[in-house]
Write a structure and sequence with these properties.
The chain is an alpha/beta fold. The protein folds into 2 domains: 189 residues, Alpha-Beta Complex (Aspartate Aminotransferase, domain 1); 250 residues, Type I PLP-dependent aspartate aminotransferase-like (Major domain) (Aspartate Aminotransferase, domain 2, 3-Layer(aba) Sandwich), CATH 3.40.640. The protein contains 15 helices and 14 strands. The strands form 4 sheets. A 7-stranded mixed β-sheet has the order 2-8-7-6-5-3-4, sandwiched between helices. Helix 5 links the parallel strand 3 and strand 4. Helix 4 runs parallel beside helix 5 and helix 12 runs parallel beside helix 15. The longest helix has 20 residues. The radius of gyration is 21 Å and the shape is globular. The N and C termini lie far apart (55 Å). Bound molecules: pyridoxal-5'-phosphate (PLP). The site of pyridoxal-5'-phosphate has 14 residues, from helix 4 and helix 5.
Length: 452
């Protein structure tokens, strides 16, 4: 069995290749200046290794490309919708299934249909678009992570869990104000940390007892299922689809950005067991996404999503995926860059606050490190700290791995870039904002480094 070997092999061979830009230092310097020091504003052709996000950046399989040709583009009732619906129903068990163009479209429909101003949504930690959609509806997005979530060196498992006593306390005091409880799998904002089945069961019980609806933000359901199988007692002999099915059945519905574990370039899902909510979703769908059997997507997209959702639960693929992230984290630690422990499922999070103690949080150490990775080796990551979330307790740089795209040699290259940055860490400078938009500022703010 290949899993007994030290070397991780990609459980696929490569059928089509895409060249990546190889740039020199002065070109990278000029590009960063032009982009206002914001890596979101670079052109992709100015990036050598793009670890900005794992969202929509995966490589589709030959099965998915073949499925694309089977797309039925009928406006209503297309064959591709039923193929998609069957795949999502097998995965989740939910009765009512809607395709949407991406995760935030599902969040928007959910927020606009079921939330009233002043109501509360509790989550282990809201992803930024989930929070923005809730707040846009006038409701309050409340994060209830456990205290372990912010301990970057605490290597215990399932740091993505929700703080159940805090949820019980909230429901004891404000039950009538809580419109929805959500669990984000895996918990992206705290380092891609998984949620245990034990926590899922407890949150589900608390919600059922209080008659409060419970949804999953299940963008990374497959990686979460893998962590349950490999680290939670009692699940070692379970199949991955059985674990995923159990996770979904504990909730009343889900939003999914299929750009992650669906391994597609665009697509998402909104699904629920509740007939009353499904009726509301259907009306809102037509206003913004389209007829409920295509939902802002082409029939071919529904076909590729159906295949991707199945492929992401393949054990060989998930073993390689999660091991690659761990290998990346081990390499960075070895050259002296502290990373959030334990490594999660889709990205390595470097603790920029600890690595650059001479740069205070208000001068964005995560941004300083992101710029250094780009200038040194054309590697693009993203700051997850005070720039993205002004009240953030952590100052991180996220290096996300697109699915099935980069090889171990690419990861070794990024580790070598990190080694060079370690040698000059004390010379890195903090940043200040020159211009920022009214919300979600990290996407378009322009910045400049402090001069010494
Ligand atoms: C946990 C989580 N939820 C929701 C979303 C939003 O999905 P999308 O980008 O498809 O709108 C993301 C995207 O990164 C995410 O990580």
């Amino acid at each position: 069995m290949t899993q007994d070997f030290r070397t991780i092999i990609e459980p696929f061979r490569i059928k089509a290749v895409e060249s990546i830009p190889m740039l020199d230092g002065p070109t990278r310097y000029e590009a960063l200046q032009r982009a206002g020091h914001n890596l979101f504003c670079l052109r992709a052709e100015e990036v050598t290794i793009d670890l900005l996000t794992d969202s929509g950046t995966g490589a589709m399989s030959s099965r998915q490309w073949a499925a694309l040709m089977l797309g039925d583009e009928s406006y209503a009732g297309s064959r591709s919708f039923f193929r998609f619906e069957t795949a999502v129903r097998q995965l989740t068990g939910y009765a009512h299934i809607f395709p949407v163009h991406q995760g935030r479209a599902a969040e928007r429909i959910l927020a606009r249909t079921i939330l009233k101003p002043g109501q509360i949504v509790a989550n282990n930690t809201h992803f930024d678009t989930t929070r923005a959609n809730i707040e846009q509806a006038g409701a309050i997005a409340l994060d209830l992570p456990t205290s372990r979530a912010s301990q970057t060196r605490d290597a215990t498992r399932f740091k993505g869990d929700m703080d159940v006593p805090a949820l019980e306390e909230l429901l004891a005091q404000k039950k009538t104000e809580v419109a929805l409880v959500m669990l984000t799998l895996t918990n992206n904002a705290v380092g891609g940390q998984p949620v245990s089945m034990d926590n899922l069961e407890k949150v589900s019980q608390v919600c059922r007892r209080a008659s409060v609806p419970f949804f999953l933000d299940a963008a990374r359901f497959a990686e979460n299922a893998w962590f349950i199988r490999t680290h939670e007692p009692g699940y070692q002999d379970w199949t991955l689809p059985a674990i995923a099915h159990k996770m979904f059945r504990l909730a009343d519905g889900c939003t999914i950005s299929a750009k992650k574990d669906g391994i597609v370039h665009i697509g998402g899902v909104l699904a629920t067991q509740r007939q009353d909510w499904a009726d509301l979703f259907r009306c809102e769908m037509i206003l913004g996404e389209g007829f409920p059997t295509y939902g802002g997507l082409a029939g071919r997209d529904l076909e590729t999503m159906a295949v991707g959702l199945e492929e992401s639960l393949d054990a060989d693929y998930l073993r390689y995926r999660v091991r690659s992230i761990a290998y990346f984290a081990e390499g960075l630690e070895k050259v002296g860059m502290p990373v959030v422990q334990p490594p999660g499922g889709h990205a390595v999070f470097v603790d920029a606050g600890a690595f650059l103690p001479h740069i205070p949080a208000r001068q964005f150490p995560g941004q300083a490190l992101a710029a250094a990775f780009y200038l040194e080796g054309g590697v693009r990551g993203v700051e997850v700290g005070s720039l993205m979330f002004p009240d953030s307790r952590l100052q991180l740089l996220r290096l996300a791995l697109p699915r099935r795209v980069y090889t171990q040699a690419h990861i070794d290259y990024v580790i070598e870039v990190a080694e060079r940055i370690v040698a000059k860490a004390s010379l890195l400078k903090g940043y200040q904002i020159v211009h920022e938009p009214p919300f979600l500022r990290h996407f378009s703010a322009t910045m400049q480094p402090f001069e010494s």
